[in-house]
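re the bet — no i am not wrong, look at it urself. input seq straight from the record:
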Amino acid sequence: MAGVKERAEVLREAAEPGSRIGLTELARSSAWRSTLKKRGLLEIVDRTDTAAYLVSVDAMNEMLDSINALESEIERVTTQQLFIARGEREHWQAGDELEREAQDSLRRRADAIREFLGGER
């Protein structure tokens, strides 16, 4: 529900006078600069089609901060899901124990492949 509210707010702001500027007005005047500074974002239109968006440095930094925060949250949740998926495989090994376990695992796999292929051990 919050997503709908946020989209409605963005549309309301975009519909306010001064948030859109025509391409010809952009070329002929510099009055749009104060609007851009105040709003942070201007939609540039060519007739009725959106041609571009102008974003102030502050607004761009805010957007980048939001994107970075969302990416961090995605990374955190993904990592959490990896640990949940691992379940009981939380026994970490190192050194000789890891080497021995890896060699045993390879031997078991080789034996399983030989059995599957009908060969001898």
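see?? Residues 57-86 form the longest helix (30 residues). told u. also The chain is about 65% helix and 15% strand. so pay up
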